[in-house]
Amino acid sequence: MYGLRLLERLRNQKDVETHLILTTSGQKTLYLETGKLAADAQALADFSYPMGNISSRLASGSFPTHAMVIAPCSIHTMSAIAYGISSNLLIRAADVTLKERRKLVLMVRETPLHAGHLKTMTALAEMGAIIAPPIPGFYNHPQTVMDIVDHSVDRVLDLIGLPDPQVRRWDGEAQ
User: What is the pLDDT of residues 102-123, one digit of tens each?
Assistant: First the structure.
């Protein structure tokens, strides 16, 4: 849901070009959680790439990108990125994002976490990645599941420098 919603929200941003890499697990999760197919997510992106396309432009630092978001990010993917195991396009693109000092946001949503997970997150943070688990805020009094999802997506949009001007922000007052 997070990745799909992020794509929907980015489509509303002027002059934003989106590139999608959807893993096999991501396709399964997308269907299980939303009933949507890979084609539905691909239709929201400007460009879509197969996981095995390691020669894609996203695998090169010479292709300029603003940021990369992995939503959601599994522990497996997070660990592969941390240790430079560039066995597919997603992990290679994340590695390129880090080496080029661009923003990499990982929406890690698995829980609970053991010490190894936390050490991996620390290593990634030290490399420049932003670990942004989709943890809902309730100060805005969400009324729907989509309100909860949007709260996390809004934070990610802020982190990558593409804030949505329509977002209701905390003003220090009770809602």
Answer: 999 999 999 999 999 999 999 9
Q: What is the pLDDT of residues 138-166, one digit of tens each?
A: 988 999 999 999 999 999 999 999 999 88
Q: Which of 61, 131, 132 is nearest to 98 (CA)?
A: 61
Q: What is the DSSP secondary-structure string of the chain?
A: -HHHHHHHHHHTSTT---EEE--HHHHHHHHHHHS--HHHHHHHSSEEE-TT-TTSGGG-TTS--SEEEEEEE-HHHHHHHHTT---SHHHHHHHHHHHTT-EEEEEE---S--HHHHHHHHHHHHHT-EE---PPP-TT---SHHHHHHHHHHHHHHHTT---TTPPPP-SS--
Tell me the average pLDDT of the chain: 95
Domains of the chain with CATH codes: 2-158 (3.40.50.1950)
* β-bridge partners, 67: 103
How far does Cα 164 stand from its chain's mean position? Answer: 16
Q: Which pair of structure tokens corresponds to residue 23?
A: 């893993």
